[in-house]
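Known limitations

C-alpha cells in this collection are predictions and should be treated as such. Users comparing against experimental data should check residue numbering before alignment. To illustrate the layout, the record for Aspartate 1-decarboxylase is reproduced below. The input appears on top and the generated C-alpha cells appear beneath it.
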Amino acid sequence: MLREMCKSKIHAATVTETNLNYNGSITIDKALLEAVDILHYERVQVLNVNNGTRVETYVIEGEHSSGVICLNGAAARWAQPGDRVIIISYCLMEDKEARNWKPKIILVDGNNKLTKML
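Generated C-alpha cells:
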C-alpha cells in the first residue's frame, strides 16, 4: 500500500507579490526550496492563513536569498502581498517507510528568511 505523506513544508511564509499576467505557479526563493528539497516545477499545495483557503500549483524557482513568494496567474487572485502562507509538497511511499518518515520543515521570518529547521 502507498501512503501520501508530507514531504516538505515552508511554514508561515509571507506573500511578497502577485502577478496576474503570468501563466501560473508560485515563485519561491531558491534558498527556501533547497532547504526543504522542493524542485522547480514540483507540485505544491499553498494554504492561505489569512483567509483559510488552499490552492494547488507548481513551483518556479526564484532568485536565491531574495525572499520572494509570488503567486502567479490565477493564483494571484487568491492572495495578496502580506498574506501568510504555508507551502507543502507531498510524496508517495510504502507503508513501512511512511511509519518512520520525517518531512523537511522550515520556519521563516517576516522577510522569508529561514529561522529554524524542524
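For this record: Helices lie at 30-36, 95-98. The two ends are 28 Å apart (CA to CA). Please report discrepancies through the issue tracker.
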